[in-house]
Amino acid sequence: MDDNKSDSNHLQQIRDFWNSRAGMGKWAGTNDIMAKQLEIKAIASYVHDGLKILDFGCGNGITAIEIARQFDVQLIGIDYAEEMILAAKSLIEGQC
């Protein structure tokens, strides 16, 4: 099989996996909610008001949204999975 075709298939499988988890709310990124809370706390320890933050691989935005709630920051989230971005937008709009 052509390496480019194999890589393309693999990337599509990754995207499909994350798209399939987009509707899982706080469990989309991990089933370990305690680990997610620790992650947010650890990241927050480096954040202060006025920062500009890029969350590359933001998933459904759970971490980014919490950081934005705690601090006066400019935050942009980017993700490979389109459904995760849609889920993040829904969370921001309070629809979930």
How would you portray this structure in words?
- With 96 residues, this protein is mainly alpha-helical.
- It has one domain: Vaccinia Virus protein VP39 (Rossmann fold).
- Helix content is 53%, strand content 10%.
- The chain has a two-stranded parallel sheet with strand order 1-2.
- The longest helix is centred in the first third of the chain and has 19 residues, at 3-21.
- The termini are far apart.
Describe the structure in brief.
The chain is mainly alpha-helical.
Salient structural properties:
mainly alpha, Rossmann fold
| Number of DSSP helical runs | 4
Q: So what's the overall shape?
A: elongated
* N-end to C-end Cα span: 42 Å
Instruction: Decide which structural class fits the backbone.
Output: mainly alpha
> For this entry, what is the oligomeric state of its chains?
single chain
Beta-strand content:
5-15%
| Mean pLDDT reading | 91
Q: Which value, in Å, is the CA radius of gyration? A: 15 Å
CATH class: Alpha Beta
In this structure, how is the largest beta sheet organized? 2 strands, parallel
The figure for the number of domains is 1
Helix content: 40-55%
Strand order of the largest sheet: 1-2
